[in-house]
Amino acid sequence: MLGCGLLAFGSSPQASKTLDPNIKNPFTSKMKRENPGLAQPERRRAFDQDLAQLPVKISAARTGALQKPASSSRELALARLSSLSGGSLKIFWNENGSLPIFIKGYRLQENKLAQAQIASDAALSQQALAFLQENADLFRLQNPAQEFQVLTVQREASGMTHIHYQQVYQGLEVWGRDIRVHLDRNGVVESFNGRYSATPASVAVNDLQVNQARAEQIARQAFGSPADAISSRLLIFIDENETPHAAWLVNLKKGLDGNWHYFVAAQTGALLKHYNHIMFDGPVTGSGTDLLGASRNLNLYQIGANYLMIDASKPMFNAAQSQIPDDGKGVIYVFDARNGEGEQLYYVVSNNPNSWSDRSSVSASANGALVYDYYNQVHGRNAIDGAGSTMNIAINFKQNLNNAFWNGQFMVFGNGDGNRFSPLAAALDVTAHEMSHGVVERTANLVYENQPGALNESFADVFGALFEFWVEGNAGDWLIGEDVTTPGTPGDALRDMANPASNLVAFSKQPTKMSEFQNLPNTEEGDNGGVHINSGIPNRAFYLFATNSGLEAAEKVYYRALSTYLTRNAQFIDCRLAVIKAAEDLYGVGSAQATAAGQAFDGVEIFSGESTPPPPVQPPVEGTEYLAVIDAGSGQLYRTSTSGQQITQISNTGLRSRPSVSDDGGDIFYVDTNGNIHLLASDGSSDQTITGSGGFNNVAISPNGRWLAVTSTFLEAVIYVADLASPSPSLAPVQLYTPTSAQGEETGNILYPDRIDWSSDNAVLMYDAFNIYVNASGDTTSYWDINLLRAADGKINRLFPPQRPGVNLGNAVFASNTDNIIAFDFFDETGAVKAIAVNLNTGEQGVITNNGSSLSSPSFSRNDQRVYYHYIENNTASVWYVDLFPDGLTGNGNDAQILNGGVYPVSFTVGQRPTDVESHDPVLPAAFALEQNYPNPFNPETAIRYSLPEAGNVALAIFDVNGRRVATLESGMKPAGAHAVRWNGLDDAGKRVTSGIYFYRLTATAANGSVQTMTKKMTLLK
């Protein structure tokens, strides 16, 4: 033992870590230490007796850990909702499985409203809030009635009511977080959708360190040039890690094309995020020098002998409140920027109502008036905002600008450079596209970045195309901007909704399905996360839907989805769900239109229940996080807070090796210094000795408590594994070997294993092992490496290829919530130890920390955003942490010491893991089934079985965690009955895919058109 006991709190910033020239290989500390005492044969017999009795003893000793735990409040809420909905409940979860984003059922609460109350918006709102309160644990909300404010109450002739809420906390807006609750004609909640955050209770909104003036100063400094206008307000900002901040939203406007949002942390002054809220139409390049030349009817406003391009003919015009020309209410203005940047705008004026020198103004006025008519006549919408507010159009913006955009107040047109674009005001679809950005802003208000931004662009394209069909009838088409794009090249366009990758697309072809999704950075250079690139995917989905269901149905469904269901941070999966729900509302559940909607999104690989990318992680355990740390002197185990404080001794004896903790944090298994296994309550209330032979080296319990693994102090290449849930559990020896690339060939150069750790899905045991290899010359080489053992069948897979001489890998652990990421110690001939993290799916790796000459024994935190580890120098030990960058692999360099005298830190959380996010569709026909593949994990192949209650058209395909189609296994008609198919790990091109998590999806369409779909997850290990 190290002579540095008396575990103590020792917080300090990063100190230097050094290389000790006297330590030739720190992995020698892992060498097997056999206990002295009994003669070998007698010790072996006693150990074997312990092995035989151990599973039964552990089952008896555990305090109900193998029993089904008492239902959590969230599980009870789900059961109650399922009962209320008559078994029709469907719940879809966000990307990390922590919050519902879409709930629907026959009904979701008791009918508590009298008929007279249904006429009251206030009563309906209270009913909706009561639904949230009844299920507050499910929604992770503390006081829903205080955390949501009504934005709109929308009633329909059908009797349905839709209430749109803004999330707030302590009176402050939670930016970008809103929900919609939908009630039936009886005032009973029947569905819910939205993107919100759990109650941001950690935010301090009082005693702010940065006031409003200072926040504006920080934003101005970051902006870098004088702004025309500045405003700010205090709100709650949720960052990409779902961490809430009190923040100032500072809005800086400059010209017509500058509408910048800066988020400044109100406690630190840090710039959390900034972006330009201007919604540009595609590439900032231009074309053309003239317009289409058609004769158009105009609605003008005469003042004396002059005619102004102000349209006061629409039903929204309010003559009593208008002061023309400066302050028209409910008019359509056309202004001239005269090639400036919008600092000064000019009225478009002529002394002859039938003569206008600037053709751009004619196109802008006529097309703008038609856009109003389209939304008013087709969708009953009164102007862009739905409330009859004035519409503003600006032409001749900048010199030869190859763009058009919506800036929140103005529809702005550039004139193009005559090569890439002609004047953009000429195009019907471009005009409707940009004005539709305004409609999007006033309905779902989709954030203009990443997938929400791509949906923003897509909905603008959708209504741009629909508008063109409405105006031109059969002469309309699925091209966007074809009238103004590259005037020297006939037939091309800015985008093609029917085929986004078409050769008709002039500049940048788009992906047509999720397997082609482009994951671009959320920067200006990255097109705000690909808003104009990835919009091709939902564009194609709309084309498929519209051509199947008809334009009239399609435009009604999409407008309803936009105005009734989508919320600010909606993802592609949210769009699918919203469109299907809107189709069901309008045409009925199971209608041809609802079916067509689902098929359209299937056609672009946006499948039901799968976000983009599908969630490869589990939600973290909910509860209080602690560290279990061994005192380096006494060897006894202590429990501390994650900051290294509140130190409590919990074990009665010293530990031989790193402990293993159950997923709920209640039970700790460890091997004492005498080689015996203990079961310890994590609060120290009990410490039971389970064995007495003294022959054990390591023990590990799987997260769900089903699987037990142990290793011995004997020099043997064996791990003992037991299924504690079996009727007669026993520890079966698994002989370790080194797999080779040749099928059926194995090598036996493993001397013994050491560290063992279970995957979060309880299926795989990861272990490190000491190997000795003797080459043809008789030279001996020893090294440590890492392998994987499948519990179900003992199959072993090599995690990494053979390393060069001098490289050792060990002390490997899985991340807390995903089996894709592991961490381990890496040592090579340089003499330095690095804690390394690797994503097994992508192959990406990062350095967690450089740890001098000391092994680190890493442990992931509850949410996998931090790693705890130990550092040993000059016989002195300490416990440290480092936070990870968003890649989850690389330490950000903020290493800090939190404990003196401790080794082998293990993070654990006392609590429960939320309900499985994949259980969103429990109600399926009894005879329609998709079984879990076997074996799983697998290598090189696995079997997938499914059952059909009747003959149908079947599609069975494999997808990776990014939603990309990898392989098609079945496609075509299949008879009723049981079926099986094997997958050999090859993609459709015949190439072998990488190790990692994959999803397999079965879709079966019956003769009557009904569709059933199921998805399951599997793991390929190599």
Which topology of the largest domain does CATH recognise? Neuraminidase
Straight-line distance between termini:
38 Å
DSSP strand (E) fraction? 25-35%
Helix fraction, binned, reads: 10-25%
CATH architecture identity of the largest domain = 6 Propeller
Contiguous uncertain segments of 5+ residues: 1-6, 35-39, 63-71, 280-290, 610-616, 740-746, 915-926
Quantity of strands, as a count: 56
How many domain regions?
5
Rounded Rg = 32 Å
The CATH class of the largest domain:
Mainly Beta
Overall 3D form: elongated
CATH superfamily of the largest domain: TolB, C-terminal domain
If helices are DSSP runs of H or I spanning 4 or more residues, what is the number of helices?
14
Can you give the mean pLDDT?
85
Tell me the major beta sheet. 7 strands, mixed
**What is the structural class?**
alpha+beta
